[in-house]
Design brief:
single chain, alpha/beta, 2-enoyl-CoA Hydratase, Chain A, domain 1, 8-stranded mixed sheet, 12 helices, 17% strand, nucleotide-binding
Length: 282
């Protein structure tokens, strides 16, 4: 007679939260980077180097180009594909001189009445001691202030990670667009978990709490439009992803050009003044 051996219960692993799935897609190593969009969607790109104060930041690019034949300015952070490139570009995290270079280029665009496009895929500004010594916080704050009153149409697109003030310094724009599987957040989930629970392994829980995926961020009014991606992410069909981004950029630029500069500035101010409100006033 067989003995009745108690069966050990097996608990099924908890499903991976959708927010963490999108985080991994936003960080996918084969996902198109800002420079990929610049090369695919713009022509006659002529890069502007240096911030006229300290150095030429390898993690930031800016230059004049043409979008459907119209002269514009494009700005984006650079991450690099190989380990050597990533190290040189500090994994896409700009120094203060990177933000100052971007702002210098934006002021040139403003002088000549050229629309500004920014492309963002960074975990945050470079947090090193050298960056703080050269005024990282001031550089980011100045970009935020100056972008809020640029007298030209501005469109920012978060293509992967949009992290903290490092992203915001390029995203105070008339239209803020975000790809479907991108994230836009005040802090990385790993850092949030380390601060909140003293345990960075709780990053998936932090990702759910931060509500930084495209749908959540759009519901708070932090982005104006979410751009769909090919199934599985932009890395599965980069050419089609570029077509989708191109169509949205063209549409939003056309809408913005119908407004006078004064109306443009008033609408930009009203948008950021009322962003992310979650309360009502009696």
């Amino acid at each position: 007679m067989a003995e009745n051996i108690p069966q050990k219960s097996v608990t099924a692993p908890a499903p991976t939260p959708e927010s963490w799935i999108k985080t991994e897609l936003a960080r996918h190593p084969q996902r198109p980077y800002p420079m990929d969009y610049i090369e695919a969607l713009f022509t006659d790109f002529s890069e502007i180097h240096g911030d006229r104060q300290f150095a030429d930041d390898a993690a930031m690019t800016a230059g004049m180009a043409r979008f459907h034949g119209e002269p514009v300015l494009v700005v984006g952070n650079l991450k690099g594909r190989t380990l050597k490139e990533r190290t040189a570009r500090k994994f896409g995290m700009p120094d203060p001189e990177g933000y100052r270079k971007a702002l210098r280029a934006m002021k040139i665009a403003e002088k000549f009445g050229r629309p500004v496009f920014t492309f963002i895929d960074l975990a945050g500004a470079y947090p090193g001691l050298s960056a703080e010594e050269r005024g990282q916080g001031e550089a980011i704050a100045r970009n935020i202030r100056e972008m809020s009153r640029l007298r030209v149409p501005t469109i920012a697109t978060v293509t992967g990670e949009g992290g903290s003030g490092g992203a915001l310094a390029l995203a105070v724009a008339d239209r803020v667009l975000m790809l479907e599987n991108a994230i836009y957040t005040v802090i990385t989930p790993e850092s949030c978990a380390a601060i909140t629970w003293k345990d960075s392994s709780k990053k998936q829980l932090a990702a759910e709490a931060l509500r930084y995926t495209a749908d959540s961020v759009q519901s708070l009014g932090c982005v104006d439009d979410v751009i769909p991606e090919p199934e599985g992410g932009t890395q599965m069909d980069p050419a089609y992803a570029m077509e989708l981004v191109n169509e949205r950029l063209e549409r939003h630029l056309s809408d913005l050009k119908r407004l006078s500069i004064d109306d443009l500035l008033a609408a930009r101010y009203a948008k950021f003044r009322n962003i992310a409100q979650f309360y009502t006033i009696a």
